[in-house]
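Notes from the 1:1 (GR / supervisor)

We went over the backlog. Supervisor wanted to see one worked example end to end before approving the batch request, so GR pasted a single chain during the call. The sequence is below; no edits were made to it. Supervisor asked that the structure be written out right there so they could see what the output format looks like.
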Amino acid sequence: MKGLTELLKGALEGIVLQHISKGETYGYEITNYLVDLGFEDIVEGTVYTVLLRLEKNGLIDSEKRKSEVGPPRKFYKLTPAGTDYLAEFWTKWTFLAEKMEQLKEK
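Structure output shown during the call:
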């Protein structure tokens, strides 16, 4: 969907954290997951920028591990602060979705 990337910018941190909350993962896998969900405009560079910001803010931890193919991969997992942030994200998202639905109906 064209133009979706601009709308997603504010939500992308929460989307990435939600995926990481399901288990340790790495950037390329996150990008593929988002593309499979239909977010075709999301590029790997965007995901890595989000991951760097999340790590800098203490919401995720990373660990480099050997890969069976290619160079080592950086695996990410949520920190306790990341878990709290994700819960807050969903609270805000639910509020916003409800208000947008109300606005649409008026």
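Supervisor's comment: The chain has a mean pLDDT of 91.
Batch request approved.
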